[in-house]
Write a structure and sequence with these properties.
Layout (H helix, E strand, L loop, with lengths): L22 H21 L9 H12 L9 E2 H12 L4 H12 L9 E4 L17 E4 L1 H6 L10 E3 L6 E3 L8 H5 L1 E4 L4 E4 L4 H13 L5 H7 L10 E2 L3 H10 L1 E7 L1 E6 L5 E7 L6 H13 L6 E6 L7 E5 L6 H11 L3 E7 L1 E3 L5 E3 L2 H42 L1 H10 L3 H9 L3 H8 L8 H26 L1 H19 L11 E2 L18 E7 L3 E6 L16 E8 L3 E6 L3 E6 L11 E2 L12 E6 L5 E6 L3 E6 L11 E2 L10 E5 L9 E6 L4 E5 L12 E2 L8 E7 L5 E5 L2 E5 L30
Parallel strand pairs: 8-17
Antiparallel strand pairs: 1-3, 2-3, 4-5, 6-7, 8-9, 9-14, 10-11, 11-13, 12-13, 15-16, 18-19, 18-20, 19-23, 21-22, 21-24, 22-27, 25-26, 25-28, 26-31, 29-30, 29-32, 33-34
EC number: 5.6.2.2
Membrane topology: Peripheral membrane protein
Family: Belongs to the type II topoisomerase GyrA/ParC subunit family. ParC type 1 subfamily.
């Protein structure tokens, strides 16, 4: 009996092979490859530099574009294009979002990118499109990449093999703990909160002295996270130590709040710092929803008064509500309290993901810095050896200069002849042939000998360091000390922002009776009639005034602001923003609000800015600088600040920072049409009085003064245009001089056209 078997199908053309594989095995194999790719190439940071591949490629691409802190900005679209085209073949939106986060000071403790333009805000608003924003590196990012050109780390081919990229950064900055990291991979995740750099350096220096330093000593130096948005960490110290010892845990973080006392026994609660990664707009929306649904019986209202700083105002239902009880309700039901998780799951030096404790993370950074130090030292030694070899050839050439010149002139192939004649290496012979004629001076020979001796001494020192582990670790200790000096708590950004321990005692901040914060535009007429309209409209429309009256000034303010009114009698009068009458009529005389004498002219009206300063001057040519805080009066009669002389008929008030930019010089002009410009530093700062002589005026009076920046020049209106004189040398002098005639085209009324 014959058995027939079916022949297998022929292999497909092109050499392809079809294998029968169970579906479960095929899916498992491919999913495992995907999972490993997600873990290693996307989600988990490297313990050595604290960066994920996308962040590392972003910084490297910006470095290649020479976007250092001292240079200019470039469009983010240019950076993102280079990243996705050369290093990171993913979507441009994902790369741009990663870049935006590195620039947000409320998202990372130490921004690696300095942004210019709209990079989002703490409310959760997105950044502007990448074609509108610009960026460059920060000093921290530069520290991370210090040594890339000195063989400090390994490079590998990019995804298309056309270029090389660093596998890890040299990391002269403890970025992993300083900025933290967040990531979700397949089957694992990482969550590392940011910490204070000064405290990290203290812990690192402990480990340099003793690698077996107990965890208690490390936690004493590094007691907890330091979030960029501040807040109060209320986790017990024992729980913090246990989290750092295991690499897993959580920290209880609360908003920072205080009670502000109002009049008649009323108060309000003001939140000034919110927990990390909480969007302020969504937080307020959540509180408002709970208020609407009557789940917060102790709360009466919530409003957002934030400007550059966070300020969330919570009004209690009644004056009998206990502030601590109200806040406990909010902490339990809103994101005014969060738990910041700790999961130090990172890639170690071998690229293996694992959870490390605090000591292991710190030691991994130190070991990486040790490796970088050794590699950079050997690279430097190679450079020195090559240079010494070249210098040795130069010295031989100088000792035999005539013969070298003869060989070069007469031989068709001088290089082999030089090598045979003077026993030179190929490098030395090539260097001699490439010498310039101007290098054949005696002075150049002396410089070469000096350089040869210096490099030889440096070589001996570096070789000694490579042979001595103690010296290497001493050098690393110096590097950590430098990090502490550059980014530690004595620097503005290095101060701790998050309070550790139990919530602080409620601090009462008594202030004047407050009204609901509302924008208003104050309108003051020349005859002293004052009124306000709601909001800050660009066009106030047609304003109505009494017969013979006209507009004096308009001021944008808030109902909670204080307005300072300056009169020609040298007195400042304080007007509360909520006292200004509303409506579009004539308003009411300002003399019904404050006691301005009828014979005093109105000089200036502006919003009081705490900390600001102003220049006051009288027509007799005397004046001084005064702090606005010394101008605020408590009564209707105002506060006497400037004391005009007997011949003074007018007064002038000017801010020291017109347009928001601090000035450095004072420009004075008198009715005699003499202009004088002198340094602002020559003026004294007083609280009241006549002041000092600004300009010597003979048979004349002071017409106008102005604060300017010398680099910007002096500007004045000329018809519908503005003229600027940039070369002010002719009018520069010292205080109390007479001055000279102003530039051609200066206004005939001898004024600068306003402050």
């Amino acid at each position: 009996m014959t058995t027939s078997t079916k022949a297998p199908p022929p292999p497909p053309s092109g050499g392809e092979e079809i294998r029968d594989t169970p579906l479960a095995d095929a899916l498992g194999e491919r999913y495992l490859a995907y999972a490993l790719s997600t873990i290693v190439a996307r989600s988990l940071p490297d313990v050595r530099d604290g960066l994920k591949p996308v962040h590392r490629r972003l910084l490297f691409a910006m470095r290649q574009l020479k976007l250092d802190p001292a240079g200019g900005f470039k469009k983010c679209a240019r950076v993102v294009g280079d990243v996705i085209g050369k290093y990171h073949p993913h979507g441009d939106s994902a790369v741009y979002e990663a870049m935006v986060r590195l620039a947000q000071d409320f998202a990372v403790r130490w921004p690696l990118v300095e942004g210019q333009g709209n990079f989002g805000n703490i409310d959760g608003d997105n950044a502007a499109a990448m074609r509108y924003t610009e960026a460059r590196l920060t000093a921290v990012a530069q520290a991370l990449m210090e040594g890339l050109d000195e063989d400090a780390v390994d490079f590998g081919p990019t995804y298309d093999g056309e270029e090389d990229e660093p596998r890890v950064m040299p990391a002269a900055f403890p970025n992993l703990l300083a900025n933290g990291a967040q990531g979700i991979a397949v089957g694992m995740a990482t969550s590392i909160p940011p910490h204070n750099v000064g405290e990290i350096c203290d812990a690192l220096r402990l480990l340099i002295q003793d690698r077996e330093t107990p965890m208690d000593a490390l936690v004493q130096r590094l007691p907890g996270p330091d979030f960029p948005t501040g807040g109060v960490m209320v986790e017990p110290p024992d729980a913090v130590r246990a989290a750092y010892a295991s690499g897993r845990g959580a920290f209880r973080l609360r908003a920072r709040w205080a009670v502000e006392k109002l009049g008649h026994g009323l108060f309000q609660i003001v939140v000034t710092e919110i927990p990390y990664q909480v969007q302020k707009a969504k937080l307020i929306e959540r509180i408002a929803d709970l208020l609407t649904s009557r789940k917060l019986p102790l709360l009466g209202d919530v409003r957002d008064e934030s400007a550059e700083d966070v300020r969330i105002v919570l009004e209690p239902r009644s004056r009998t509500v206990d502030p601590d009880t109200l806040m406990e309700h909010l902490f339990r039901q809103t994101e005014l309290e969060v738990r910041a998780s700790l999961n130090m799951n990172v890639l170690d030096a071998d690229g293996v993901p694992r959870v490390m404790d605090l000591r292991e993370v710190l030691l991994a950074f130190l070991d990486h810095r040790h490796t970088v130090l050794v590699r950079r030292t050997r690279h430097r030694l190679d450079k020195i050896a090559h240079r010494l070899e070249v210098l040795g050839g130069y010295l031989i050439a100088y000792l035999n200069l005539d013969e070298v010149i003869r060989i070069i002139r007469e031989e068709d192939h001088p290089k082999p002849v030089l090598i045979d004649t003077f026993d030179l290496t190929d490098v030395q012979a090539e260097a001699i042939l490439n010498m310039r004629l101007r290098s054949l001076r005696k002075l150049e020979e002396m410089e070469i000998r000096k350089e040869h001796d210096a490099l030889s001494a440096e070589k001996i020192d570096l070789e000694a360091m490579l042979a001595d582990p103690a010296r290497r670790w001493a050098r690393i200790d110096e590097e950590v000390a430098r990090i502490h000096a550059d980014f530690g708590p004595h620097t503005p950004l290095g101060k701790r922002r998050t309070t550790l321990g139990t919530p602080p005692t409620t601090v009462d901040v008594p202030i004047e009776a407050m009204v609901e914060r509302e924008p208003i535009t104050v309108i003051l007429s020349r005859m002293g009639w004052i009124r306000a309209v709601k909001g800050h409209p660009d066009d106030l429309g047609e304003l109505r005034f009494k017969d013979g009256d006209s507009l004096f000034t308009t001021v944008r303010a808030q109902t909670t602001d204080k307005l300072l009114l300056f009169a020609s009698n040298g007195r400042y009068y304080t007007i509360a923003g909520d006292r200004v009458p509303r409506g579009r009529g004539y308003g009411e005389p300002v003399r019904l609000i404050v006691d301005v004498p009828n014979d005093a002219d109105l000089v200036d009206l502006h919003v009081h800015r705490p900390g600001a300063k102003r220049l006051l001057a009288a027509s007799d040519g005397r004046g001084f600088v005064v702090a606005e805080a010394d101008c605020v009066g408590q009564t209707r009669t105002g506060k006497q600040v400037l004391t005009p002389g007997k011949d003074a008929v007018a007064a002038i008030s000017r801010p020291l920072d017109p347009g928001g930019v601090a000035g450095d010089h004072v420009a004075c002009i008198g009715t005699n049409r003499k202009l004088l410009i002198f340094p602002l530093s020559q003026l004294a700062e007083l609280t009241k009085g006549r002041g000092v002589t600004l300009q010597r005026l003979k048979d004349a009076s002071l017409s106008d003064v102005k604060i300017i920046r010398l680099v910007d020049g002096l500007s004045w209106p000329s018809g519908e245009r503005t003229r600027t004189e940039t070369d002010l040398t002719a009018w520069l002098g010292d205080r109390a001089q007479a001055g000279k005639l102003p530039p051609r085209g200066f206004p005939r009324d001898n004024t600068f056209g306003g402050g």
